[in-house]
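Subject: design request, 370 residues
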């Protein structure tokens, strides 16, 4: 009996050891533990060596002149795969086809828009997962324009053990907002490849390049030429926000920065809330653009109408818009209307927001011509 008990105890110990070994195998960054997380080449050469994985990324890097940056600068790359580019371009061309526009590819799409998108994936400085182990992650800056991104460590669970699975990074486009509900986020499939000059983290194949902005950027209607800026239009509104620690007056609709805004918590208490533009002499305007602000979409304008006048007394209707929304923060929407008559005054009457009581906010307002 004693020998049988000893055998049972030995069998139990072997089973426990095997279980612990299996759990250890599932922990940490195992995607690259089986390989060599350190490579003896620069970041550009590493990505280029992965044929069939990062070919599209290299095409974009080469077109944008980022090759040298990836070769000799201290950088972190959140690398999008061919699959991520393929989905983005397919979605884009489906939208363009529906709009009667010709298809685009990485070699002929607008340089400025592509540049803005791709530099979100190349970050200044070296950031391994150790730097991201904070409750709110770490804020990162794009290599060319300092666009604000966020990376947060996300330990997963496996084999019944909390934080026993692979560690992934949640990589987010912050939209310049402090509120995570406004962010667009993707996860990584592998992390911490160390090159001679940087770090590479690979995004999941279901990530769509450009987050939610790729199709919008390449199908957008370009804004009108801004009469307010060109000819000194003066803006007045039906009511300004009460004074506060945060300056959010109507002035900030004209400062050409979507990071500032006009906000009035009582704007729609008396409807409509109106915005007048007065020109020194009468001008023919037939377009305008509105940009959503940094946070609560319920404050965005929903219904409005445009009018023209010569004397601030007699107003002629030019356009009525209803049921509008701004799915993204800092999103500009352009509106055009038929008009060949010069008016000294233009008034936008806002009659409803998207559900946030009587509050209203607008980041930018631009009045112009086609």
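Subject: RE: design request

Done. Sequence follows.
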């Amino acid at each position: 009996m004693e020998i049988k008990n000893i055998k049972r105890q030995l069998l139990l110990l072997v089973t426990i050891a095997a279980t612990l070994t299996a759990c250890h195998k599932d922990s940490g960054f195992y995607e690259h533990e089986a390989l060599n997380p350190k490579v003896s080449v620069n970041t550009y050469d590493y990505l280029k060596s992965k044929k069939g994985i990062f070919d599209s990324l290299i095409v974009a890097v080469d077109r944008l002149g980022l090759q040298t940056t990836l070769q000799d600068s201290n950088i972190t790359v959140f690398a999008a795969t061919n699959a991520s580019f393929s989905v983005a371009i397919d979605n884009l061309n489906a939208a363009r086809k529906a709009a009667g526009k010709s298809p685009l590819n990485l070699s002929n799409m607008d340089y400025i828009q592509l540049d803005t998108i791709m530099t979100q994936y190349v970050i200044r400085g070296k950031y391994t997962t150790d730097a991201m182990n904070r409750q709110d992650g770490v804020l990162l800056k794009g290599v060319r324009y300092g666009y604000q991104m966020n990376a947060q460590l996300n330990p997963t669970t496996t084999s019944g053990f909390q934080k026993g699975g692979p560690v992934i990074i949640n990589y987010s486009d912050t939209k310049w907002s402090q509120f995570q509900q406004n962010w667009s986020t993707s996860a990584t499939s592998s992390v911490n490849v160390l090159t001679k000059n940087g770090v590479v983290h690979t995004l999941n194949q279901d990530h769509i390049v450009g987050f939610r902005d790729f199709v919008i950027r390449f199908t957008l209607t370009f804004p009108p030429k801004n009469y307010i800026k060109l000819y000194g239009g003066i803006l007045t509104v039906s009511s300004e926000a009460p004074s506060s620690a945060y300056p959010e007056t109507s002035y900030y609709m004209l400062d050409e920065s979507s990071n500032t805004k006009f906000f009035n918590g009582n704007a729609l208490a008396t409807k409509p809330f109106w915005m007048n533009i007065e020109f020194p002499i009468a001008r023919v305007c037939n377009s305008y653009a509105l940009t959503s602000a940094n946070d609560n979409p319920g404050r965005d304008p929903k219904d409005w109408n445009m009018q023209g006048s010569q004397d601030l007394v007699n107003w002629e209707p030019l356009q009525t818009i209803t049921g509008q929304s701004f799915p993204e923060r800092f999103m500009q929407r352009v509106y055009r209307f038929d008009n060949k008559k010069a008016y000294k005054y233009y008034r936008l009457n806002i009659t409803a927001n998207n559900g946030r009581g009587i509050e209203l906010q607008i980041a930018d307002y631009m009045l112009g011509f086609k």
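The chain is about 25% helix and 30% strand.
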